[in-house]
TrEMBL record:
GO terms for molecular function: fructose 1,6-bisphosphate 1-phosphatase activity; fructose-bisphosphate aldolase activity; magnesium ion binding. The active site is at residues 15, 232, 235. Its EC number is 3.1.3.11, 4.1.2.13. Catalyzes two subsequent steps in gluconeogenesis: the aldol condensation of dihydroxyacetone phosphate (DHAP) and glyceraldehyde-3-phosphate (GA3P) to fructose-1,6-bisphosphate (FBP), and the dephosphorylation of FBP to fructose-6-phosphate (F6P). This is Fructose-1,6-bisphosphate aldolase/phosphatase. It comes from the Archaea. Keywords: Carbohydrate metabolism, Gluconeogenesis, Hydrolase, Lyase, Magnesium, Metal-binding, Schiff base. Homooctamer; dimer of tetramers. It comes from Ignisphaera aggregans (strain DSM 17230 / JCM 13409 / AQ1.S1). Mg(2+) 2 binds at residues 56-57, 135, 237. Belongs to the FBP aldolase/phosphatase family.
Length: 385
């Protein structure tokens, strides 16, 4: 293998059905997926893999030499999900095949239901990588923590004190509704970036690059399942990959951004705001009100495209206070019951079952001419309308 050989890490996930509602992946479905990945490894399509789950999402972490969006690798993932879904159907698991929106695979899982985060790089002598996997939320949930990791010196000390980080990072932001993206440089365009990514249901941080040499630093799955399906089929539970140390933020700086359990969209029926709670693999299962939303962080070292590890990074009492705060926030939000801002706003609810209820009420309304309604003076739509 030449020294310049590139390694790709692909994290591809799907909800293919789960045990007791949307709670956890059944071990038999994981075993079915593992069989497909073991075969792909023996054939040399992938070099290594690690299979896990976060709540009801089956997560395939794969390393290989075939680059991002490689049809062969995507086909392996697709077949693993199909085999797992078959078992889910046999067992009568809930929402079996939930995220597999089609029967026909066409070279790439994007747009077919599963979500993917992939990055390719030349391995450094030591290559620490963190894989984040969340359940009961959406890709924009990573906006706030990724901003803090790569843009906020109050989170990442290295932005100030490490010359290799001091130039800053570039954020690629994807407009999931407009189907466009924009690249913004930090720190100089920080306020513009925040003007966009503060709307995480629409503007999603898709990639982060180191500004000095364009080296890939982070990537997020940006698939919005409901926008693809046109209706509510489940939340777009996202994954992200972040490189750490030696020219990137330290591992401890990357996970520090999750010490604040910020509010994210998802939770019950994908229709509620709740705190994102960092948990260990052991606690990667949503319970109360199908939540609160959770995120797991697995740390790997990658060597010659092999996955060394993982280290279960949130399995630490140092995150107990974050979890306690998350539960206090969960309790506070729950008390709002069906009221906003616990329940999501009308734009997001469009993809749920609420419109069917509202439709039924339409005929009940009678004209009330109390005053003339002129409509807004200022065009309130965001961009590209
Ligand atoms: P070590 O001195 O333990 O390698 O740690 C360096 C570092 O960057 C910690 O954040
Ligand atoms: P998932 O998106 O994790 O399948 O959850 C869906 C849901 O409706 C939870 O209440
Ligand atoms: Mg589910
Ligand atoms: Mg899920």
């Amino acid at each position: 293998m030449s020294e310049k050989a590139k390694t790709t890490i692909s994290v591809i996930k799907a909800d293919i059905g789960s045990l007791a509602g949307h709670h956890v992946v059944h071990p038999d479905t994981m075993a079915a997926a593992a069989k497909v990945l073991a075969e792909a490894k023996s054939k040399g399509i992938i070099v290594d893999y690690y299979i896990t789950h976060v709540g009801d999402d089956l997560e395939l972490i794969m390393t290989h030499r075939k680059g991002v969006d490689a049809p062969e690798v995507h086909e392996v993932a697709w077949n693993a999900f199909k085999e797992a879904a078959k078992v889910a159907k046999e067992l009568g698991l809930y929402a079996a095949g939930q995220d597999l929106l089609t029967d026909a695979f066409s070279g790439n899982v994007r747009g077919l239901g599963p979500s993917a985060a992939e990055m390719e790089f030349v391995e450094r002598p030591a290559e620490p990588v963190i894989v984040f996997m969340a359940d009961k939320t959406e890709p924009g949930a990573f906006n706030l923590p990724l901003f803090r990791v790569f843009g906020d010196p109050f989170n990442t000390a290295g932005l100030v004190i490490d010359p290799k980080l001091h130039d800053g990072f570039k954020f690629e932001v994807y407009d999931v509704i407009g189907g466009k993206y924009v690249i913004m440089n930090l720190p100089e365009e920080m306020y513009d970036l925040l003007a966009l990514i503060g709307t995480p249901g629409r503007f999603v941080v898709r990639r982060v690059y180191r500004k000095s040499d364009n080296e890939i630093a982070a990537v997020v799955s940006v698939e919005r399942l409901n926008l693809i399906a046109g209706q509510y089929v489940g939340k777009d539970d996202p994954v992200a990959i972040v490189r750490a140390q030696s020219g990137f933020p330290a591992v401890g700086e990357v996970i520090e951004a999750f010490a604040f359990p910020h509010l994210v969209a998802g939770w019950m029926r994908g229709s509620h705001f709740g705190p994102l709670m960092p948990v260990s693999q052991r606690n990667a299962r949503c319970t109360r009100f199908d939540g609160p939303p959770r995120v797991v962080a697995l740390g790997f070292q990658i060597k010659n495209a092999r996955l060394i590890g993982p280290a279960d990074l949130f399995d630490d009492p140092a995150y107990d206070e974050t979890r306690r705060l998350a539960q206090t926030i969960a309790e506070y939000m729950r008390r709002h019951g069906p009221f906003m801002p616990h329940r999501l706003g009308p734009e997001e609810m469009e993809y749920t079952t609420l419109p069917a209820v509202l439709q039924k009420l339409q005929n009940r309304f009678v004209e009330a001419k109390l005053y003339e309604v002129k409509g807004p003076k200022v065009k309130t739509e965001l961009l590209h309308e």
